[in-house]
Write a structure and sequence with these properties.
Blueprint lengths: L1 H12 L21 E6 L2 E7 L5 E9 L2 E10 L5 E8 L8 E2 L18 E2 L9
Antiparallel strand pairs: 1-2, 2-3, 3-4, 4-5, 6-7
Length: 127
């Protein structure tokens, strides 16, 4: 749950799209036990306690007008940080489709069906 909070905080606190440099509005932010965020140089650093009390951190920035996860790291029991990933650039995709309704389930359970019908890429009528 805290991981979702971290991601939500990072995406709302940092204006990632259309910006050429990091702009982070920390107005009203208060650190809570197990979750802390701060601006460090040109990045937003978010640190939190993960499963089993393990310390985790993520660093978000903007490079060349693109959002970047500069680092994902985990702290070992001896206090050293281990980098899990660096310089990740998010990719966004969209798949359009329809839900089948002829599966015999009641309307309230039709979203439980896993066999979607992808429609593929949009077809444009170009003349």
């Amino acid at each position: 749950m805290k991981t979702l909070l971290v991601v939500a905080f990072a995406t709302t606190a940092v204006r990632l799209l259309g910006a050429s440099e990091l702009t982070c509005d920390m107005t009203g932010y208060q650190a809570t036990p197990g979750l802390e965020a701060r601006v460090e140089q040109d990045a937003l650093l978010v640190q939190w306690k993960g499963e089993a009390g393990r310390e985790l951190r993520a660093s978000f920035a903007i490079d060349n007008n693109r959002p970047v996860v500069r680092e994902l790291a985990s702290r070992s029991k001896d206090g050293r940080w281990s980098t899990l990933a660096r310089n990740l650039v998010p990719e966004f995709g969209l798949t359009a489709g329809i839900r089948r309704t002829n599966h015999g389930l009641p309307e309230t359970n039709r979203w439980d069906v896993f066999w979607d019908v992808p429609m593929g890429p949009p077809r444009w009528n170009m003349r």
